[in-house]
């Protein structure tokens, strides 16, 4: 269980770092992104571990990755390139 938690925290941190590096203009502060990625991965690992039980380490890490990615996607802001056309009155 300790190795699952450590592995999921590292996966979440790596995903958050890659996201913050790739999309810095669409994300809030880097510390928030890193904390959300790591925390989301730990929560995902906990939920997956409770649902599947022990002995499913790869599935637990995939669950951690999925929840971390889902929480990271909630932090994204829309791009500024979206312009709505003005409708003439």
TrEMBL record:
It comes from the Bacteria. The chain crosses the membrane at residues 31-52, 58-76. Keywords: Membrane, Transmembrane, Transmembrane helix. This is Integral membrane protein. It comes from Streptomyces lasiicapitis.
